[in-house]
Amino acid sequence: MITLSNIEKVYQTKSIETVALQHVNLLVPKGEFLSIMGPSGCGKSTLLNIMGLLDVPTQGTVEIDGHTITSYKDKELAHIRNEKIGFVFQSYHLVNDLSVLDNVELPLLYRNGISASERTRLAKTALEKVGLSARTKHYPTQLSGGQRQRVAIARALIGQPQIILADEPTGNLDSVMGEEIMNILLDLNRVDGTTIVMVTHDENMAQKTERLVRFFDGQQVSDAKVFANLQQV
Ligand SMILES: Nc1ncnc2c1ncn2[C@@H]1O[C@H](COP(=O)(O)OP(=O)(O)OP(=O)(O)O)[C@@H](O)[C@H]1O
């Protein structure tokens, strides 16, 4: 589903050159739930941004569901992103002036041929899936952190993406809410077959996924199936 080949990312500012990623080769098969761990600054978010076509590598190629991305124009990248990828961030990235329902509908505003009533129906279905049907008219500031993250997940899945990229989705939540969010992601993976790549600092959350890749200083240092989950199969 996602193939990264020989990825390198160098950030060049006035006098400083930072090598954020080097020699990254990673294949994420369709339907896998992969977690990525590593110390602060090792390149995890950069990697996720490159996978999500939000950033371009300095070298290497990215393949998403059969599309090899080398020199696509912004418009084409936006199209693939909008059709195939849902994003979930640590700090939710909700629009505070919009209701829960309107936040969830947002990604569909950029799709052609979907009427307003269809958008609303799909948003309600997505909110139902994350257990937030009773909060459609609330605003983000009236919700708990866990509820806000559930809205963000509903927004990520309204376009029925094949891939969800989650950057520390439980990072701002206490352990109970973190578990709730993790269970929603696990369901999306196991029941709907959504491919998920999750960056996390939480070893417990990573151990619930199928495979764990560790990074250090921009490079993969380990890549292993999660043993506990292998035994469950
Ligand atoms: N826009 C940028 N300009 C210059 N350097 C950057 C930029 N973004 C990231 N970096 C550098 O690239 C390296 C990797 O950053 P990245 O945010 O990917 O790390 P991370 O592993 O996600 O860290 P954290 O766990 O703290 O979020 C860091 O050294 C960072 O300072």
TrEMBL record:
Q: What is this protein called?
A: Putative ABC transport system ATP-binding protein
Q: Which of UniProt's keywords are assigned here?
A: ATP-binding, Nucleotide-binding, Transport
Q: Which SMART domains match?
A: AAA (SM00382)
Gene3D superfamilies assigned: P-loop containing nucleotide triphosphate hydrolases
Q: Which GO-annotated molecular functions does the record name?
A: ATP binding; ATP hydrolysis activity; transmembrane transporter activity
InterPro entries xref list: AAA+_ATPase, ABC_transporter-like_ATP-bd, ABC_transporter-like_CS, ABC_transpr_LolD-like, MacB-like_ATP-bd, P-loop_NTPase
Q: Residue ranges of the ABC transporter domain? A: 2-233
The scientific name of the source species is Pontibacter chinhatensis
What protein family is recorded? Belongs to the ABC transporter superfamily. Macrolide exporter (TC 3.A.1.122) family.
The root-end lineage is: Bacteria, Pseudomonadati, Bacteroidota, Cytophagia, Cytophagales
Give any Gene Ontology cellular component. membrane protein complex
Q: Which PANTHER family match?
A: ABC TRANSPORTER ATP-BINDING PROTEIN YTRE, IMPORT ATP-BINDING PROTEIN
